[in-house]
């Protein structure tokens, strides 16, 4: 109705005059709460005279100016969660996805350009040594781009990639490669990149290579770091929820004791009412904590599943390779590809978990000031 925006604006202005800044959302929410508490007196859908509007405005302002009020802080917490958390979560995901997409887009652009260049490069017969050498060098460059190492100047990475390329796709293979269609060339190049990536990951795991491969954690390139991070984040979530749950339980037990045993010595009805409001405040915070950490639980579960896949592929390779120096390509190459894909998924999800963990810690700090200090002890 037309009167509602004016009513909310009046409430905000009155509060500001008293030195308290109130958001439009909070003012509107409190006005509606006052109306619901006394629906017979305040009915905004019907006729409300000037005295009624003045009384509604005053009641709303009085509520908003309360200090140390559990019910008001619970309302603020609810609005903070509904608005701020969702807003920050959307912004966080947008920023994260934007950063990831930007890096992926830049890499994809380089890969696409190399795919086109490689597909269009045609030697004049099998004796065109210069063109074939250029083609092989471009394929090597493509693999360096996939390894995110084309500009690092790391000679160890270059040697490993060159050795893997020669093993999987020796120069003699160029003769059949140049006769393929552009789509077949693209498919083979993608397959080659995954296999080489898997070989380097495997070599890193057995301590015989993997230069330049990191696990999204500075100065620590072990999978154990990811496992530890998953454990630590899960522990943090459990501790926060357990602490909030313990406080709520203690409030509940005291109030139940007072109710069942009619214990009212030195405890006024106002004090009991205050404790009930504080309990609502604690329970609200607990419910928000549980919602916040559901996001982390999803990431933790996904990482656990990916790590199981990664470990399975790694163990399969160890069993296949053993002490043997040669294996059927059709048997071992698909496992290298699967290992490479599992690693890409794992690294991306781990980075997401770390970013989300930092974000949620900020949320907890933000919401904790809405949780009142215990008055029951």
From TrEMBL:
Superkingdom of origin organism = Eukaryota
Recite the UniProt keywords alphabetically.
Cell projection, Cilium, Cilium biogenesis/degradation, Cytoplasm, Cytoskeleton
InterPro entries associated with the record = FAP206
Q: Which GO terms describe its cellular component?
A: axoneme; ciliary basal body
Query: Which Pfam families has this protein been placed in?
Result: FAP206 (PF12018)
Q: What is its main location?
A: cytoplasm
Q: Its Gene Ontology biological processes?
A: cell projection organization; regulation of cilium beat frequency
The record's subcellular location field reads:
Cytoplasm, Cytoskeleton, Cilium axoneme
Stated family:
Belongs to the CFAP206 family.
From the Swiss-Prot or TrEMBL record, give the protein name. Cilia- and flagella-associated protein 206
């Amino acid at each position: 109705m037309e009167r509602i925006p004016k009513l909310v604006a009046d409430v905000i202005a009155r509060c500001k005059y008293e030195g308290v800044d109130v958001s439009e959302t909070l003012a509107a929410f409190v006005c509606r709460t006052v109306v619901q508490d006394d629906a017979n007196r305040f009915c905004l859908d019907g006729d409300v005279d000037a005295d009624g509007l003045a009384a509604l405005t005053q009641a709303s302002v009085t509520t908003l100016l309360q200090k140390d009020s559990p019910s008001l802080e619970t309302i603020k917490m609810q609005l903070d969660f509904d608005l701020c958390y969702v807003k920050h979560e959307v912004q966080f995901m947008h920023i994260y996805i934007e950063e990831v997409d930007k890096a992926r887009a830049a890499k994809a652009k380089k890969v696409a350009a190399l795919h086109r260049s490689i597909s269009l490069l045609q030697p004049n017969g099998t004796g065109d040594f210069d063109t074939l050498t250029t083609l092989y060098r471009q394929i090597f460059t493509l693999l360096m781009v996939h390894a995110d190492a084309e500009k690092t100047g790391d000679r160890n990475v270059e040697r490993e990639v060159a050795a893997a390329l020669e093993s999987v796709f020796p120069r003699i293979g160029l003769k059949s490669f140049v006769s393929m269609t552009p789509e077949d060339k693209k498919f083979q190049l993608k397959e080659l990149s995954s296999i080489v990536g898997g070989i380097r990951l495997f070599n890193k795991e057995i301590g015989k290579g993997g230069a330049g491969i990191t696990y999204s954690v500075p100065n620590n390139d072990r999978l154990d770091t990811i496992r530890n991070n998953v454990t630590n984040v899960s522990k943090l979530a459990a501790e926060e929820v357990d602490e909030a749950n313990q406080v709520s339980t203690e409030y509940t037990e005291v109030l139940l004791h007072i109710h069942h045993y009619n214990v009212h010595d030195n405890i006024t009805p106002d004090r009991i009412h205050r404790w009930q409001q504080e309990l609502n405040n604690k329970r609200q915070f607990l419910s928000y904590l549980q919602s916040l950490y559901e996001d982390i639980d999803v990431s933790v579960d996904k990482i656990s599943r990916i790590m199981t896949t990664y470990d399975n592929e790694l163990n399969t390779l160890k069993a296949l390779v053993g002490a043997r120096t040669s294996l059927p390509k059709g048997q071992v190459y698909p496992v290298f590809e699967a290992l490479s894909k599992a690693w890409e998924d794992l690294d991306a999800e781990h980075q997401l978990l770390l970013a989300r963990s930092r974000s949620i810690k900020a949320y907890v700090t933000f919401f904790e000031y809405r949780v009142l200090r215990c008055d029951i002890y």
